[in-house]
Amino acid sequence: MKDHLAITWRRVGAAPCPYRSADTGRSLPDLLGEIVPMLEENGVSVEVTVENTDEGAGVWFNGIPLADLVEDASGAQRYCAGPSRMEELGRPEIAYEEEARSGCIVPEIIFRKAVLIALED
User: Fold this and answer.
1) pTM of whole model > 0.90?
2) DSSP character string of 84-121
3) Between residues 47 and 23, which one has the greater pLDDT?
């Protein structure tokens, strides 16, 4: 197991993170706020970088796109959300925004498994 987790979030402007837990409703940054201290207590150093960009937005764990990690962790087709799903999740400002990027809505355990996959040797 690796002893370092580098989290990179490239976002357009001040856009919120498009990853959210389907069962708890927590955003990925909220979930990481809980996970990071546990990783650090167990000897894993964590580096978080937030970059603003005009294109190429996304989230990476140790250089691996989070979308790929989610797919691996779920073992099935990921449950991606377009604007109509964002409205259902109580984010109407995203639902009707033309520039809104789609997000990924999966159970919280999938995000937790994605972190573990990114830490595999």
Assistant:
1) no
2) HHHHHTT-HHHHT-TTPPPEEEE-HHHHHHHHHHHT--
3) 47
